[in-house]
Amino acid sequence: MAFFIVFSCMLVLILLLTWGKMNAFIAFLIVSILTGLLLGIPADKISTSLQKGIGDTLGGLLIIIILGAMLGKLVAESGAARQIANALMHVFGPRYVQWALLIAGFIIGIPLYYGVGFVLMVPLIFSVVYQYKLPAVYIGLPTLAALSVTHGFLPPHPSPTALVAQFHANMGLTLIYGLAVAIPTLVIAGPFFARYLKHIPSTPASLFQVNEVNETVLPGKSNSFITALLPVFLLIITAVLPYVFTGAGTSFKCWLAFAGDAPVVMLFSLLVATFSLGILQHKAVKEIMRIYADAVKDVAMILLIIGGAGALKQVLADSGVSLQIAAAMQSWHIPLLVLGWLTAAIIRGCVGSATIAGITAAGMIAPLMLQGQVNPNLMVLSVGAGSLMFSHVNDAGFWMFKEYFNLSIKHALLSWSVMETIVGVVGLLGVLVLDKIV
C-alpha cells in the first residue's frame, strides 16, 4: 500500500508540474503534505518534517549556490565571459570555430548557471554563423551541450551541489571525477554528433546579430580566465593536497580542510572577482553589489525548488517508506549506480527539469547508499547524468533551443533531444568506467 501511495503522489507531482503548470515549490509543498497524511504521519508533525527537510537541504547549499550565482553574474556583466570566448576564437581560427565555441561554452558554463550561459552564448554563436556562413545547429549545438554537461555534472551548479550534500560526497573529488566524465561526454554529444546535423534548416532572427563593443572596457584575457576558473582550481588543489602531504600534522590538515570547504572556496573566489573584475575595472562598489543582488533574484526560485524537494524527501524519511523503497529496490538486482541513473532519467522524462529530477531521485536513492558499497562521488555523477536524459516538450531548455534557432519541433527533437540523451547515456558509461578504476 505504501508503494502505491508514493507512486500516486509522484504522479500528482508530475501532473501539477506539467498539466497544471504549477510553480514547482508550491507543488512540492502540496505533494509533501498529501504524502505525509496518506502515509500516516500525524498531522501536527507534518509541518515539522517540512521545515526540517527544507532546512537540512538548504543549510549546506545556500552559501555555495548564492556565492556561485554572484560570481557567475559578475563574470557575465563584466565582459569576462566575452573575453574568454573572443580569446578562444582568436586561437582556434575560422577552421576550428566549432571547437572554440565548445571550449568557451564549457569554461563559461562552469561559473554560470545554464539559463544565463545559454542567453550569453547564443548571440555569439549566431554572430559566428553570420560571419562565416555556417549551419547554425551544427555550430551551436556543441556549445549548448557543454553548458548542459556542466549544469548536470559539475559543482557549484545547483543540482550536483545538492547531490553532493545528499550523498555526503566530497566536493573536490566530485569535481575531478566530473571533469573526467564531462570531457569525453561533451566531445561525443557535441562535435561528433553535430556532424550529422549540417543539413537541419535554421534561420535565426537578425535581432541576434551582435554589435561590436568597445574592447577597452573589457577585463584582460588572463584575468578573465583565472577569475572564472578560480573555484575549480582551488577545489581541485585542496582535494589533491591531502594525498600529497600524507604525513602532515593535525594543524595543517585542519587548515587544509577549512581552505577546501566549498563555501570558503566560493567566498574567497568571489572576493578575488570583486577586485579583479569589479574594482580593478573601475566599477563602483555600489554597482558590484547591485550585480550581486540581481544574482540572488536569479537563483531564488532554484533554491526554493531544491528546498521543496528536500521537504518531500524528509516526509518520505519520517514516514519510514524510504527504507521500504530501498529494501524493494535492492531486490531488483540492478547496480546502484545504474539504478540512480534510471530513477533520475524517468523523473526527468516526466517532469522536464533536470534539477527537480536529480534532487527527487536522490531522496529515493539515498537510503540505499547506507546499505551498498558505492562511491558517493560517482553516485552524484550517475544521478546527474540521468537527470540530463531525453529533453522534450516539457523542458524549458527544449523550447529555448527551438525558438532561438527557429526550428520545427521535429528538428528540435532530432537535434536537441538526441543530444541530451547522448549526454545522459555517455555520462553513465563514463561513471561505470570510473567505478572500475577508482
TrEMBL record:
It is a multi-pass membrane protein. GO terms for cellular component: plasma membrane. The keyword Membrane applies. The chain crosses the membrane at residues 26-43, 55-76, 96-129, 136-154, 174-194, 225-245, 257-279, 299-316, 336-366, 413-434. It is found in: Cell membrane. It comes from the Bacteria. Keywords: Cell membrane, Membrane, Transmembrane, Transmembrane helix, Transport. GO terms for molecular function: gluconate transmembrane transporter activity. The keyword Cell membrane applies. Belongs to the GntP permease family. This is Gnt-I system high-affinity gluconate transporter.
